[in-house]
Amino acid sequence: MNLTLALRLGRISNLPTVWTNVMVGALLAGGGLGDARLPLLMVALSLFYVGGMFLNDAFDRDFDAQHRPERPIPSGQVSARQVFIIGFGLLAAGLVGVALASRGPDGLPAWRALASGVALGAAIVYYNAHHKGNPLSPLVMGVCRVLVVLTAAFSVAAVLPTAVVLAAIALLCHLIGLTYIAKQEHLDRIGGLWPLGFLALPGVYGFALAMHTPVVWLWLVLYEGVLIFALNLLRRRARGDVPRAVVTLIAGMSVLDGMVLAGAGQILPAALALLAFVLTLVLQRWVSGT
């Protein structure tokens, strides 16, 4: 397998959104930008993400053979067995990374972080194996991202602060709306629009944060702008609009993370989250985000 193919299978263009999820969990739980655990957690949870993307192609190989024959497995560029082995290997490597990042003064990993990491791996496998035709799959995908936040948080704290819990709920709502759209991407159209109502809830939370911390307005306006742009694509429904809305909303996770970080007074990390948003959009032009 060459590097280009591996990057395509791993959807590496979306990794900056994983990094901002990690920042939300670790920083709101009491960590800092200078904490040596932060980059290790970013690497570890990136391995979970890339492993999950490999497994997505492996489990979807029959579906892709009918609807997306250009994907690496049905086009014969790589075998399903090889993709399965790499995918599960990356999940295992990610869990080792979490164990290393969450070690306490006694040298032992934090059991809560390990348990959350195991749950994340299980959720990733369950989603990939059962998401086709499963009406609850948007919820399961949202849980996967929530577990990224929780794993990062438990790596630096034994108890979850309220800010982490609220941030996780906001992210879950964003992912439910996003995944509902992505499930119908191959149709290049959207059926009922009611699940997209979940996308409104993070904005409500952002408004509450902005009332306390006015600087949050900047991130809130940007986040709402991302939503309006994506939803306008869905309303127009021209050819290619649904996939474009999907990748825009994926990148928009970093804006949401920035909004939450700004609400906690973490202005520099919040600014870095905006850079992650831009980086994701740039990388999506190079490697498809879906």
Spatial separation of the terminal alpha carbons: 20 Å
Which homologous superfamily in CATH is the superfamily?
UbiA prenyltransferase
Report the sheet with the most strands, covering strand number, pairing sense and barrel closure. none
CATH topology: Tetracycline Repressor, domain 2
The whole-angstrom Rg is 18 Å
Based on DSSP secondary structure assignment, what is the total number of beta strands? 0
CATH architectural name? Orthogonal Bundle
Counting helices, strands and paired strands, the structural category is mainly alpha
- Portion of residues in beta strands equals under 5%
What is the N-to-C order of secondary-structure elements (H for helix, E for strand)? HHHHHHHHHHHH
Helix fraction by DSSP (H/I, runs of at least 4): over 70%
CATH C-level label: Mainly Alpha
- The tally of structural domains comes to 1
Oligomer: single chain
User: What overall form do the CA principal axes indicate?
Assistant: globular
